[in-house]
Amino acid sequence: MVSERGLQVLRAIVQDYVDTREPVGSKAIVERHAFGVSAATIRNDMALLEDEELIVAPHTSSGRVPTDKGYRVFVDHLAELRPLSPAQRAAIASFLDGSGDLDDVLVRTVRALTQLTGQVAIVQYPSFARATITHVELVQLGGGRMLVILVTDTGRVSQRLTFVGEDFDDADLAHIRAGLGTLLVGRPVREGLQRIAERLDDPDAQAPAHERATDEIVRAVAEELEEFRQDKLVMAGSANLARRESDFRGSIYPLLEAIEEQVTLLRLMGEMVADEQGLAASIGRENEAFGLGEASVVASDYDATGSLARVGVLGPTRMDYPTNLATVRAVARYLTRMLEQDDSSR
Amino acid sequence: MVSERGLQVLRAIVQDYVDTREPVGSKAIVERHAFGVSAATIRNDMALLEDEELIVAPHTSSGRVPTDKGYRVFVDHLAELRPLSPAQRAAIASFLDGSGDLDDVLVRTVRALTQLTGQVAIVQYPSFARATITHVELVQLGGGRMLVILVTDTGRVSQRLTFVGEDFDDADLAHIRAGLGTLLVGRPVREGLQRIAERLDDPDAQAPAHERATDEIVRAVAEELEEFRQDKLVMAGSANLARRESDFRGSIYPLLEAIEEQVTLLRLMGEMVADEQGLAASIGRENEAFGLGEASVVASDYDATGSLARVGVLGPTRMDYPTNLATVRAVARYLTRMLEQDDSSR
DNA sequence: ATTGGCACTCCAGTCATGCGAGTGCCAGCT
DNA sequence: AGCTGGCACTCGCATGACTGGAGTGCCAAT
């Protein structure tokens, strides 16, 4: 069984190893931390920690390095979030204040996070599946081209250009628009998709006069809604992986690929389990299923007007968890406040 | 003076070095290429090539490696574009066929290019500065929110949400819309920006009733046009840099940073000088001013309905220029055809 | 339970050595 | 004049032996 002091030794090892990136020995610990016991005592504790597979010695006779399990215990039981300095808080504010629409806010958020942590920053779009459609707008561009515009209550605006093959007169257009409006406005995206599907399947619903053209419009709306349903990520700071390359045993290729693919990271972010504070960490081998066995993700929930999403950082397993957890939480809170405020002012 | 055969030796060295990534010696050349002379003769030629600084020996007694200048001569005078295989042509077609709007076409283009070349693929958006504005649309979302939509003849649609503080009745809205229409429709983006600026400076032009609100709309239009003026890039395949990392002497950090920044690559792509075929290459140290002294860019012009832009790949100086040049050219031609066809069908 | 001491292990750096690839140069040949 | 074979020479690189140092595990003593 690992004693209380043993856990403190684990903490010291994690801290020093993250700091120095060198395996840490018993002597170094008594020098850097005031344990009040001798190196031999620390060695006994370390032997126990090694039995529990919380630390490991790379070579028979070298200092110890935390295992992934060791990091997990550290994060869950030993890490005290390091509060941000006033300068750091000011930095978040100056990055985010004065931003415009949702896209802009999220881009600024990842920039701030990557700047503060020196890691890759990731933010999930708020899930639009639960968002409500507030506007459907059709704009004719002439030559049979039609612009379909959807707006949700979360402030997302999306437009799609489609070729319907004919130009409508104002009355017909108003009629189609009204039809789509009753079908969709006030409905959540998910329900809207369902209704659209029914509409496409039901032969009676077709207005025979413009059958092909309206079908084309409905299809464009469906595609657009489908895109809403898919979650999206915004990222920044992938170059930081190259700076920290030596922290990854293998190549950073799979990491860059995951960043480019997005879908892997989306699943990973989605599956992480948050604690009661909304914070979550996924460490090293826990990510092996995603091909990211040498990386860690630290994330925090944030609240976009009722729809929960996550913001976090991706970096090497050997990262500064206390700082990153605190920074991610601070940014998430600021982001939540921004989005609330944004919403009430408009 | 370098003889004709000397140049062929240079070509052999470039080819073999790109192939094997090992310095190539005189013996290897006579073995792999049918020069019909002995190794000693090749050695004499190599000594001349070294005098001209076209090749260099990493160590006193090792094979030779092309210098950046050597690559330049190779690309300008010695490289014969390697024609694409039917399978490769089919791959381009299957990537690009069935694509939708401009964004979609460009995304598919970079995917195809990165797939075919294994490098980072880059495509410039067609310059919208010369594009003509065909539609200005205003959509009220209620709560004082207004959606401003601009459409150009190149098929780009852009929308922006702005808070105007009040809701207009239909007549007022139509009036404002008509005013913007006469100001902008049929004008190139550049000219539109100018007219907007004049409009904002001219105190007489303000409709006093809705002064603040219309100003807000005009300002949103101006911001949107400004964004049009800025060129943009679409990229894919940045993970490939990690795969080819050993080809870069230093870190790939500056490269990833340039990819994230975009602005550096935009300038670089813009400043490259194309030959009469629309092909351009910028090699190694020629890119030093951009912080990319160990990378090369190969690009080809393509024609987006009259507005010229570029598509290309970024990779290590030691890249397969004949293949990449040919692939970039093929993709550029296909892209040009797609955009033409697209335009006429709509 | 903690400690000092001690033997042991293993990494990392240094040096000497040998091998092989490749060059430069020269004398001779066509 | 150009090409060739031959030969001495230079390095890079891999190998192996040796050493110093850091760190451990264990044990007897406190």
Nearest-integer average pLDDT of chain A: 88
| Biggest beta-sheet profile of chain A | 5 strands, antiparallel
Stretches of chain A where pLDDT is under 50 for at least 5 consecutive residues are none
| Strand tally of chain A | 10
Helix content of chain A: 40-55%
Order the strands across the largest sheet of chain A as they lie in space: 7-3-10-9-8
Count of DSSP H/I helices of chain A: 13
Which class best fits the helix and strand makeup of chain A? alpha+beta
Largest interface: A-B, 38 and 38 residues
| Shape estimate of chain A | elongated
How much strand of chain A? 15-25%
Radius of gyration over C-alpha positions of chain A, nearest whole angstrom:
26 Å
Name the assembly state: homodimer
Query: End-to-end distance of chain A, in Å?
Result: 58 Å
Listing every helix as H and every strand as E from the N terminus to the C terminus, the arrangement of chain A reads HHHEEHHHEEEEHHHEHHHEEEH
Structure description:
The structure is a homodimer of 346-residue chains. With 346 residues, chain A is α+β, with helices and mostly antiparallel strands. Chain A has 13 helices and 10 strands. Chain A has helices at 4-20, 26-32, 39-51, 68-78, 86-96, 102-117, 170-184, 189-201, 211-229, 239-243, 253-261, 263-271, 321-345; strands spanning 55-56, 65-66, 120-124, 133-142, 145-152, 157-163, 233-236, 279-282, 295-304, 307-316. Chain A has a 5-stranded antiparallel β-sheet, sandwiched between helices. A 3-stranded antiparallel β-sheet of chain A has the order 4-5-6, covered by helices on one side. A two-stranded antiparallel ribbon of chain A has the order 1-2. In chain A, a hairpin with a 4-residue loop joins strand 5 and strand 6 (157-163). In chain A, helix 1 crosses helix 3 and helix 1 crosses helix 4 (68-78). Chain A is elongated. The model of chain A has no long low-confidence stretch (mean pLDDT 88). The A-B interface holds A 100-101, 134-135, 137, 139, 141-145, 147, 149, 151, 155, 157, 159-161, 163, 236-239, 241-243, 245, 251-253, 255-257, 259-260, 345-346 and B 100-101, 134-135, 137, 139, 141-145, 147, 149, 151, 155, 157, 159-161, 163, 236-239, 241-243, 245, 251-253, 255-257, 259-260, 345-346. The structure holds a DNA duplex (30 and 30 nucleotides).
